Amino acid sequence: MTNPDRRLTAAETKGLRTAKELEGHLVWLDTFTPAALGVLAIASGIYTYIGVSSLLEDTGAMSFFAAVAYSVAVSVGIFVFWSYMLRLLPSMRSAGGFIGLTVSTIVGSLAIIAMSSWLNAAALAGSAAVEQHLERTVRDYQGALEQAHDIALSAQALRQEVRRAREAFEALAEQERSGELSGTAGQGAVYRVLRQKTEELQSLEAQITEQQPLIVSAYERGNEILGRMRGLTVAPGPVDPRSVAFSEESVRLAGVISNLNQYSVALLVARAAADLPASVVLPELDGRTSSIRAAQSTTIGSVLEALDQRSRTLGQAAAQVLEMEPPQETAYNPISSADAVIRYAGNFVPSWAGAIAIDLLPGVLVFVLAVTQAAIRSGRDGLSIEETLTLADLKAAINAMKDVEASMGDADTEILRRLREDAPPGKDRTPGQG
Fold this sequence. Notes:
The chain is mostly helical. It has 13 helices and no strands.
């Protein structure tokens, strides 16, 4: 039993005062906490509605009501969930109950993020995220265009190798015509072989030269399309119509990049280099004497060796171009604002933080209230009811007792009055008399 004469220690008195003060604060805070929670739930529902609307392709009445129903469900769910947590979790005294409700709070918070927060983020940063996707696509296309152009220009550089080979065989043909190679002047068998290869290389050089203006034109056109795509990325206004125009431009640019890839002559040069020694049509030796024919045969053999060497040189140069990494196939895939926010979440951390905070801020209030209730219980632990009564409590108790006594006195008076009224005439009955 509690000793009525026991005096409170200074620590107990301080703890009791703190508990009383905290209880007073909680009473005042409880007057507007539900309203504040409702405001947060409604705000989250509004942004959820905007996010859901961006996902629905249809703009009819059914889509409108579907978005409204979802957002209302989210608002109600958030309000009810946090109302439960605000009331129940701080009141838990056992460790098992507190841990269980804490786990429930975490699971509920994850559910709220899954059904609401990502849609809130889509509403806050959806357009910016789609523009980020457009900008990323522009960079990909620009890289592909530059790479295709570099490969095409590298292939054009093979023209110098082809020209050197053609000039070398052309010079040999002139030497043969003057008699400096086989020792017999004129346009005999050796001369015809050299001219044959010279004409082949000349034709290949002409094909390479014809591709140059096409490459320049395609590259300029690709840059023009890229400029329009960049303009659509940063243009004012809704992002959906800009995304449609962007998609059309991306198709045109993909065609330009494909043309640039086809304008590369590296494969043509590689094939021509392989055919250079293999496609020699050896003419009949036309020397008048056996010694002249022997000299022609020896010279043709030397020419074939030169052809083989030039073939390897051209083949190696073409192989270096063919080994260059081709541009990655780039295609623009339209994306919704919600998907864009998730894909580029790292670029929109403030928006994600705001979207999650508006849903989970009541969780902070739950734990603040839990800590406060724990402090109140700590200040009252070990004290009896009599020891926790304050002067105001005593005054309230005395007034209550007076009210009870007054009520009992009024009841006794009413009973006596009714007994007198019910007594027979001539008799005055009072309580306690027969």
